[in-house]
């Protein structure tokens, strides 16, 4: 969740949504994203809305404390119940992200989940995920999460090489994420993901292969692999600008992506979104699929984004301002926008094209259909799905996904 917030119209003090957003809501899947904005240290590449204890000192007082954060976030869950109304609507997915959610006590995460269960109810097969820093969990912590209803966990591994982790300012040691996978399995977690990053300055092809091999050897059933994006204003961007570390170019990113697909596919993992591979259909991240398919989700926490029925809104960024709004009985929303039919069409193309199943050709305008025919001829779209009325990327198309999307929606 990037730290910069867009502009938008004001959010009503009570958070009320237009009637159009709630029309038919009971028939749409609903997910919750719970943002925990705390980190022990700031990674050099991170541009997310997160805060260390030093950064919060003197800026939010007691309100910004992580000690009472679960209570504050629970207040927003109760607000969500009022805004969304009393239509029967069980929550299909919950995803706790950050930041480092596991800096909170395990009982706090369980309490936050309990608030959603109490206010909305969880579907019998609900997917409940938390992100975790490998250095911030142990077997007892993981057992508490599992007993409290979490059934999926995502560990930030990033790399198996110490020199790569050092450039990223990651604090865990190589081998620790793999040990965490075993501990999560022992605690009874159904699904375990490892996050990897490729294209770090100083990383070699051999380093990347070693990271993939280490990840697979740990036994997760899901792997996410993301190209490093150097965001302006981060410590890594400043180091590159000073010439301390080299910038990785797009060709290297493409080569690393091909290596990832080769290694993961060879191990029986199938891609289902450009940056995500799963060992089975059941291992796919259902919460992220809500985003990619334009479903409804409520994002609770500082800077969190939400979407319900074509209305998108986002909360104030700072934990102190967030807590103060809720304590005063106001929505913490900072701004919102009502998406037009054209906005929603374009977003469907942007997001669904990234999925293995692709996007319906019926979403495209005339120029987009012409672009799709060119992409097919250029080997960027698959012939079988195209014949069946869908634009689905080939492996080469995945490498050029952003360019393909731009052509289809222009």
From TrEMBL:
Gene3D superfamilies: tm_1862 like domain (3.80.30.20). PROSITE patterns: RADICAL_SAM. Coiled coil: none annotated. It is found in: Cytoplasm. Keywords: 4Fe-4S, Chaperone, Cytoplasm, Heme, Iron, Iron-sulfur, Metal-binding, S-adenosyl-L-methionine. Its main location: cytoplasm. CDD domains: Radical_SAM. InterPro entries: Coproporphyrinogen-III_oxidase (IPR034505), Elp3/MiaA/NifB-like_rSAM (IPR006638), HemW-like (IPR004559), rSAM (IPR007197), rSAM_horseshoe (IPR023404), rSAM_sf (IPR058240). Residues 24-270 form the Radical SAM core domain. It holds the Pfam family Radical_SAM. Probably acts as a heme chaperone, transferring heme to an unknown acceptor. Binds one molecule of heme per monomer, possibly covalently. Binds 1 [4Fe-4S] cluster. The cluster is coordinated with 3 cysteines and an exchangeable S-adenosyl-L-methionine. Belongs to the anaerobic coproporphyrinogen-III oxidase family. HemW subfamily. This is Heme chaperone HemW. It comes from Streptomyces broussonetiae.
């Amino acid at each position: 969740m990037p730290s910069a917030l867009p502009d938008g119209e004001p959010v009503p003090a009570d958070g009320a949504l237009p009637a159009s957003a709630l029309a038919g809501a009971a028939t749409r899947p609903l997910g919750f994203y719970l943002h925990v904005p705390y980190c022990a240290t700031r990674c050099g590449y991170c541009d997310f809305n997160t805060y260390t204890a030093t950064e919060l000192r003197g800026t939010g007082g007691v309100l910004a404390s992580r000690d009472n954060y679960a209570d504050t976030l629970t207040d927003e869950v109760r607000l969500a119940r009022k805004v969304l109304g009393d239509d029967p609507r069980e929550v299909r997915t919950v995803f706790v992200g950050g930041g480092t959610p596991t800096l909170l006590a395990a009982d706090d995460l369980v309490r936050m989940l309990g608030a959603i269960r109490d206010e909305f109810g969880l579907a019998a097969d609900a997917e409940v995920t938390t992100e975790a820093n490998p250095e911030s969990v142990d077997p007892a912590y993981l057992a508490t999460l599992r007993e409290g209803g979490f059934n999926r966990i995502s560990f930030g591994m990033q790399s198996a090489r110490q020199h790569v982790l050092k450039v990223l300012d990651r604090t865990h040691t190589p081998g620790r994420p793999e040990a965490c996978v075993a501990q999560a399995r022992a605690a009874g977690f159904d699904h375990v993901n490892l996050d990897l990053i490729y294209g770090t300055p100083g990383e070699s092809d051999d380093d990347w292969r070693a990271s993939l091999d280490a990840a697979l050897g740990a036994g997760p059933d899901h792997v996410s692999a993301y190209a490093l994006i150097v965001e302006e204003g981060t410590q890594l961007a400043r180091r590159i600008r000073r010439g301390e570390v080299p910038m990785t170019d797009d060709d290297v990113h493409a080569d690393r992506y091909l290596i990832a697909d080769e290694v993961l596919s060879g191990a029986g993992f199938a891609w289902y979104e450009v940056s995500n591979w799963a060992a089975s259909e059941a291992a796919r991240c259902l919460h992220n699929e809500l985003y990619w398919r334009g479903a409804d989700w409520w994002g609770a926490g500082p800077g969190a984004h939400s979407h319900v029925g074509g209305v998108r809104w986002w909360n104030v960024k700072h934990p102190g301002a967030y807590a103060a709004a809720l304590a005063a009985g106001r929505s913490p929303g900072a701004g919102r926008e009502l998406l037009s039919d054209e906005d929603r069409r374009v977003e469907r193309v942007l997001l669904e094209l990234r999925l293995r199943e692709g996007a319906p050709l019926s979403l495209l305008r005339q120029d987009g259909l012409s672009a799709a025919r060119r992409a097919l001829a250029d080997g960027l779209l698959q012939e079988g799905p195209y014949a069946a009325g869908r634009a689905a990327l080939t492996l080469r198309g995945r490498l050029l996904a952003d360019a393909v999307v731009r052509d289809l929606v222009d």
